[in-house]
Specification:
Ubiquitin-like (UB roll), about 25% strand, 3 domains, Metallo-beta-lactamase, Chain A, alpha/beta, Rossmann fold, single chain
Amino acid sequence: MANKNNKNKQQNGKNEQEPLLRVIPLGGLGEIGKNMMVLESGDDLIIIDVGLMFPTSDMHGIDIIIPNAEYVLDRLDMVRGIFLTHGHEDHIGALSYLLEEGVNAPIYATPLTRGLVEVKLREHKLLADADLNTVDEESVVEAGPFTVEFFHTCHSFPDSAGLSIMTPAGRVVHTSDYRFDPTPVDEKPTEEAKLKAWGDEGVVLLMADSTNAEQEEQTPSERTVGVMLNEVFSQAEGRVLLATFASNIGRVQQIITAARTHGRRVGVIGRSMINNVRIAIKLGYLDITQDELLTTAEMESLPGHEVVIVATGSQGEPTSAMVRMSVGDHRQITLRKGDTVVLSATPIPGNEELFNGTLDNLFRRGVDVLYYKMGNVHVSGHGGRADYRHMLELTRPQFFIPAHGEYRHLVLHGRLAAETGVKEENIFVIEDGQVIEIGPAGDNGELTARYGEEVPANHVFVDGLGVGDIGNVVLRDRRHLGNDGFIVCIVVLDEFDGAILYGPEIISRGFVYMRESEDLMERAEQAVLRVLKKSNKKTPVRVVENKIRDALGQFASREMGRRPMILPQVMEV
């Protein structure tokens, strides 16, 4: 496989010409989430997906993470279209932020994806100015030199689509998220005939989902979850509460169908779940009316064996409905003995701590809990290696870029591509910001691929209303504060003779409990006084503060084995 440190000589030849196509990943390669891909040719570019990623437990205070779109923002007049493959947050969640930065291009999405996007844009007061266009698997869109066709993919979202893009370099297939399910719940499998036809015509580049590259077998059919639901509903004596992704509309329909079979009615809880279900009902993706849904009062008052509740919080998101219920903090729904709770999802990599914490809290409430280690409560929307092999065999690409996955997933998918016949030098395992250029080499016009100049593709952190104002240094300080607390030392000196007019006063938070550590604080003050006695009126305040910081740091390490953040405040009056 080609990698950045082992480029072949042909790719670095002297006869390189201007590339016909540049592939620029800004998110989703080397990580799970915040998917964003840019294809560029000459003075034109298109964007595929604009997703977000949820923070890990060490990113204190961060709400979400979005792609660094600096490359696009510097080329606003080149953007010919934004193509959204489906409505999951890791594919559409950062669109509002991109539009707020000035991107004003046509947006193409399937009906349900468009409906969910409209909700987000309305919340951000961007809907009126957005150029939204509805497409389906039969649509063809001209966007500058790009001709974009769509193919239906089987995923945990009803109208997911992959893209086939005719570019100046040839056909590019971007699978987005998919699996080959021969018996999908909506009876709409991934369109293999289109993929085979394109493969017969010739696919220059395949970019394919790699999320489950460690899973050898094909992903089971979504219908296995339906079997589980029927078992749970038939055995549960009380209410059944299921947590799933708010955008997993297909799963919601399975729950509705199973509930009816067992004489139960369904209600939904959680703002995003309520909004998404409302849109799905309006567009005909759910076989239920708004009036049929239970009210929150009915969820609490009806006999338990008649009630099913679908909620947000399958990943242990701190403000979600299920998490609030698990700690007894939900204003409308109170868990009680006899309830059965199903977390119908597997934890996203890096999110295991929040997921497990929610599990423990649910068990503490005395309810029966089912999760991914205890049965078929969830089926991945992503294919396994058997699915990936089949995609490669259908399309038979000249070049291959594994997409959507952590680095090991990309490597494993690349090896699989080599097994199916893709030349190793034509397989590019790249991460965000690493650019691939495809164009003719020499005078014979034969296509080759090479690495281009890297572009910025770091995380952009969203904290409250702040976008991008929190960097790695601030996160480091937050981790520091969270681990060891802080000490503030206040000293007031006479500006004429350097005499101590006040202090040293030491204030601590998160280091020790001061009321029970008076002796320790007195010794800390003595350490500061020794520093002050060695200084004089000519010593600059900044130097005095640095010496106090060093003295208190050594003291905390020696006495407690801790490294608190130390904030000396020396003033002259």
